[in-house]
Amino acid sequence: MGPQAAYIFESRKWTEPLVVDWRNAIEHEGWMLPKFAYSRTPEGGVKARQPDVLGQPALEVIERTLDRLCSFVEDVTAHCLQQKVPEAISVTEIPGDKRLSEMPERFLLTLRHGGKPIWTIASHSATFDDI
Asked: How far apart are CA 96 and CA 11, in angstroms?
């Protein structure tokens, strides 16, 4: 299995619930996000409890899904652009500790032969901000 196929295979692990569970539930069963539950605190305030989605707090599910989606879009875009540049040029990944905080570029063009290491699309578990 090539790196592209392996990447798509791994991506299916988090995209399948989006397509199968969420889309089907919304479109075919009329699922809607449950409402927040509110309760009074002993101090007289109000406490909000977020609803569960797929058995987990909604915010955690949404943050994880959005993070995976951002990584996926960035990876696939870089991979597609890498396929379209002239044959002598490719894409390299800037190591995280070498990126400028004010301009956190992840990719640069490089010479295919004699340049920096060539980036290959690969699945990762790092968050979008930590890639």
From this structure: 22
